[in-house]
Design a protein that fits this description.
Layout (H helix, E strand, L loop, with lengths): L5 E2 L1 E7 L16 E2 L5 E2 L23 E2 L5 E2 L3 E2 L2 H4 L14 E10 L2 E6 L9 E5 L7 E2 L4 E6 L2 E5 L5 E8 L6 E6 L3 E2 L5 E4 L29 E2 L10 E4 L5 E8 L10
Antiparallel strand pairs: 1-18, 2-16, 2-20, 3-4, 5-6, 7-8, 8-14, 9-13, 9-15, 10-11, 10-14, 12-13, 17-19
Length: 262
Amino acid sequence: MYAGNSITVLVVIATLALHSGCQAQTPCTDGWFGPNCQYQCHCAGSAPCDKLDGFCSSGCQQNWFGPACQYDRMVYSGPEWLTDSDDTTCNTGNTQPVTVTLDTAIPLTWVRVVVTGAGDLNQIQLNYELPASSPLQACPGLRKASVDDLTLDIECSTTEPVTAVYLFGSGISGLCSLYISGGRNVALKQRALQSSKFEPSTTNWNAGYAVDGTTGGNTPFTCTHTQLDTASPGWWTVTFSQAVDVTRFLIFNRGENRIEQT
């Protein structure tokens, strides 16, 4: 980030297991949970989550899923009954393979499928497509784990960005939903530093505001901003508390959409 630039929040997406069974040192405020209250709730209807393990009794917000609703659901194009975020709308018995095209190519980590009957779970197979119209690829080291009688998680880790996912097998006839994990934000409340702080008066553009989970706004208490110094480029860094495999970065700019500042 260059001198005089500002960002509202940095989202670093990675594959990292949630801690569980550990009580936060102090009670978390609503909307946060876990050790040091470092995880953000994503419950439907903005309902509070369990402050220990993040469980959402109301279910997950749209486009969030997985343990404690912590995983970003990637947007893709495909059949309407598959893209409507509704686990009760399903395939009509057709066993033809289903292809979905990702809006943004990313390395795959894992996906979740929901079906109408338990017998369909292990009858669904998955391949993927890389850019440049390459042949379909089989998942390296594919592993499956049943979440419940109607829900299956499929681990399919790739090193290259994937453009499409191809589902096939007799279980397709009972397929209701496909969730493709975009990872989760591992930058939340991590240690952030910057070269300087923009201080024309009594404002407070701290580095930590870029990792506080707030993605909107244009105030000194929601964004970070370096000093207007043309002599040398500014910088901003975040240090993770443990090693992570980062798959993508999302940077949210200030509310007035001044793209030249990023």
